[in-house]
Structures are given as structure tokens and as C-alpha cells.
Amino acid sequence: MRFSLVLLAMLMPAPVSAEERAITIAVVTQERDPVQPVSPLDREVKDQGLAGARLGTADNATTGRFIRQRFTLVDRVIPKDGNPAETIRVLAAEGIRFVVADLDAPALRAAASSEQARGMLFINVQTPDDALRNEACRANVLHTIPSRTMLADALAQYLMAKRWRRWFLVTGSQPGDKLLADAYRRAAKRFGAEIVAEKEWTFKPGHARTDTGHVTLQSEIPALTQVVDHDVLVVADEANEFGDFLPGRTARPRPVAGTQGLVTTAWSPVSEQWGATQLQARFEKLAGRRMGVVDYAAWAAVRSIGEAAIRSRSDDPFAIMSYLRSPDFVLAGFKGQGQSFRPWDGQMRQPILIAGPRLLVSVSPQAGYLHRGSELDTLGIDREESRCKF
């Protein structure tokens, strides 16, 4: 009889508070100058990130209502010349403690380092800046968007699996392009590839839109890419200014990979394995478009907060942050492996998709790359390399 009572007690649900816990999450963005797309097929997305956060909030509500946790989403837009710290001050005054930060690196630093930010949790969903995971890291900032180093390592593993060891690196002129090129150089050294040639793209992208633009590109690109033999052209063009011009126009018939061509990414509309089709369909129904990388990062950020709040049965940002950094937290991210946050720098460890324009090609980490902890930690900065000091 005693055994039966113990078993019954184990099977009974844990008591919940009669008082409903309300958790409000703010999506914070900043006004940006409009960017002219390379392709006429591209359309301006006005709810980038926000739509993913909305889907994450709906997912949280499905589970949260059973334990009387209510999730609410608000969005705030910082003016182009506005002060991120002022926006955070207003959010703090409203009692909001959770921020999904769709901000560039300088704005995120300003927001997360402000005085009012000390009791808040920020999750970065936009910037891949490695410094934010290293010397500029903060204890109140997590990252669901992959770092440049993670993306470069994912590509290097795949190229080495294909035995494409000789790389020709073409880099854009933007600061982010330079940093990504540094990540590619590091990855090449780390995984045994060789960068046999490097060039910087200097052609003005607007020239391609003239009536004879394709003719000019057809002569400019072969001249630019006439270098020593190589297995693959690796492109660093985060601003998406020129990389799409390269496939089909290079001097040698070689694959293009990196930011264009065969891309490394946290998410792609072509992903359909591990239940991804279901996530894609729900997003399209909500947003009327396909899910992008920032949408996925924002969805993962909101879901992470929700999962930690539900598991810890708390609405306290410090309790939720502690749970997110613990070994107990795992997010089902529709990419085949559970995703969690690295305790040494706050980066979400996750598989990286290798995607073509229409189909998924592969997923890194590749087979054979082992790690004493998680194979996902073969992508990006490992604990011993980290310069992050909380």
C-alpha cells in the first residue's frame, strides 16, 4: 500500500501557483537605411525577426497556459540616430526584463551595457560579431544567431569532406566582409585547407543594373578570378553586394561557396528534415512569407525564454538566465540535434545548414569531427580559446 501511494504521488502533476505569471518579451530593432536588393526577385521584409518572435510567442503560449504562464510580445524601434540605452531605460520602467535584440554590434553593446540593463536578459538575433562572444561579451547577453567563426568552421568542415582543400578567397569592402574573411582564414588553418589566392571585390554593384551591366560583369569577373588553380571560390560578402554575380561567370568552372552560392546558415527555406517542414508551414501561415535567418534566431530566442520559464516555473530573469546556461536546458530547434547555450560565452550551439538555392546540401558538423563534450562545439570558439570573461 505504501509503495502504491508513493507511486501515485510521483505520477501526480506538481502543484502550480494559482497566480498567473506574466512574461513580456520586447523585440528591439533600429531603423535602417533601405538596401537595394541584388535580384529583382528579392522583396523588402518589414517584419524581419519580429515574425519569428511572434511564432515563438504562440508556441510558448501553447505550453505556458497549462501552468498559468502568459507570454506577451511587444516591439520597439530605435530611431536611426536614437540612443539604444534610452529605449532600454523605457523598457525597464515598464517592467520588461527580456529583450530580443535585432541590433547591430554597436547598438547591442550600448543597450546591454546601460545602467538599466543590469537586471535584464538580452538575446542577440542579428549580429555574428565574434567580439561579442569574446572580449566584449556580457553576462546578460546570449546569442541565437551563429557567429562568423561558426559559419566559417561549418563551411571548412564541408569543403574538407569534399576534399576541396585549395580555396580562392574573394572579399567585399564592408567591415563585416573583412571580419568574415578573417574567420575563413582561421578555419582554413584549423581544418587543413589552403587559401591559394585572395582578391578584393571593387566593382560597383549599381553598374550591373545598366542595360549593358551583364556584359560588363561577363568581362570583369573572369579578369578578377583569373588566378592560380583552386578547388572552390569562397566569397565573403555579408552585405550581399556582389556574391550572386559570381556563379557562372568565373574564369574557371569552380563552385562558389560562403555567403552566396553554397551558403552556410542557421536556417534556410529549403530545410525540410527533422520536422522543419512543420515549422516552415506554421511560419508561412503567420507571416505570409518564408522564414529567414533572423526570423529563426528570434523564434529560437523567444522559445528559449519560454522553455526556461516553463521548466523553472519562474518569471525572474536571473533564474531564467541561470537555467538557460545550465546543462538542463535543451531546445528542439528542428535541425536534428538539441540546441543549448555555451556557458563560457553565451552562444547557442547548433547545427549549421549547408544550403543551395533550392535544396539542402549538407549539415555541419560533418562526420568524423569529434569533441570531448558536444560535436557542435567543433563549430566556433571552444572553451579553451575563449577570451570571454563575465
TrEMBL record:
<comment type="similarity">
    <text>Belongs to the leucine-binding protein family.</text>
</comment>
<dbReference type="Pfam" id="PF13458">
    <property type="entry name" value="Peripla_BP_6"/>
</dbReference>
<feature type="domain" description="Leucine-binding protein">
    <location>
        <begin position="90"/>
        <end position="200"/>
    </location>
</feature>
<feature type="signal peptide">
    <location>
        <begin position="1"/>
        <end position="18"/>
    </location>
</feature>
<dbReference type="InterPro" id="IPR051010">
    <property type="entry name" value="BCAA_transport"/>
</dbReference>
<dbReference type="GO" id="GO:0006865">
    <property type="term" value="P:amino acid transport"/>
</dbReference>
<protein>
    <submittedName>
        <fullName>ABC transporter substrate binding protein (PQQ-dependent alcohol dehydrogenase system)</fullName>
    </submittedName>
</protein>
<keyword id="KW-0732">Signal</keyword>
<keyword id="KW-0813">Transport</keyword>
<keyword id="KW-0029">Amino-acid transport</keyword>
<dbReference type="InterPro" id="IPR028082">
    <property type="entry name" value="Peripla_BP_I"/>
</dbReference>
<dbReference type="InterPro" id="IPR022478">
    <property type="entry name" value="ABC_transptr_sub-bd_PQQ"/>
</dbReference>
<dbReference type="InterPro" id="IPR028081">
    <property type="entry name" value="Leu-bd"/>
</dbReference>
